[in-house]
Please model this.
Amino acid sequence: MWLLRQQDGWSTEDAAACEAWLQTDPAHRRAFDRLRDVCQTLAQLPADRVGQLRKQIAPPAVRVSPRPVGVRRQVSPKRRALPYALAALGLVAIVGGGGWLRWSHLQNQPIFVETYATARGQQLSVTLPDGSSLQLDTATTTAVSLYRHRREVRLLEGQALFTVTPDAAKPFEVDAGPLRATVVGTRFSVRHTHAGLGGDGVTVTVDEGRVHVSSRADTADGKAQPMVALNADESVHSDAAGRLGPRQALPARTAMLWREGRVNLNNVPLSQALAEFERYGDTRLRLDPAVAGLRISGSFELEQAGAFAKALPRVLPVRLRAREGATEIVPAN
Model:
């Protein structure tokens, strides 16, 4: 049913309803992806192979209900072709032989695979063959796989900005820990870190367009979590287990200040703030556990950890103490 709707053209509401159905049971997504891949593969069969399949697949019988004289039922070409594809599903294993299986396997292999990574303190911008671009922040690793019918990126660690070239026939998916962000064409960022701002979790922030965010983690009662649809200047965060928080309004520029070498701290624990600076290089700052929970706000240069430390005694009850080549941040008294 969902494939029929998709082929005939569907609305945003249809896409959301389909995603909700896919999340109710992992078997739904596997079956949907399998049928979609087969239908798309059949559409790319060479002409001689199509002729062979047509000879071996008889048109399915159709029961026609009586209708008033002069009323003609309109059936789209794509909808008319789908029964052949469904029939071919059962036929693939017996009529194709080894050649068909090899050809089908080839069609479902990625046509582009690459890994991009940055070291601590580095950033990197890359353009993919489809025209989409990635901007990687410090200590970030991504694995890119482009297929004939979809585009996939695994964000293994760090954060990146994705500017996606629109292509409705090839959804762009970013997997980060327990979350998946799916788009057709948009601009958004994904953060998947174990320290620093946000702690150990995943954050998706949209700059332009619309992004669907889903989690592979179930709720406490074993049900699939609902998909979250994000618009521009909206964000959602999950913990390390994939439990999604509420959708929040967040100016995208604030979440992407790292591209300008800055960070905006908004009432965050001092321990998290220092961990964020540490992601970009050795700060030589040491934090006394007694002041780790103090909260700090402000905008700072990520490569100026020393200036950040010097500002702390003016806004927090702390003092700086030099010790063994490092600077300790300790209680003022």
Confidence is low (pLDDT under 50) at residues 56-81, 91-95.
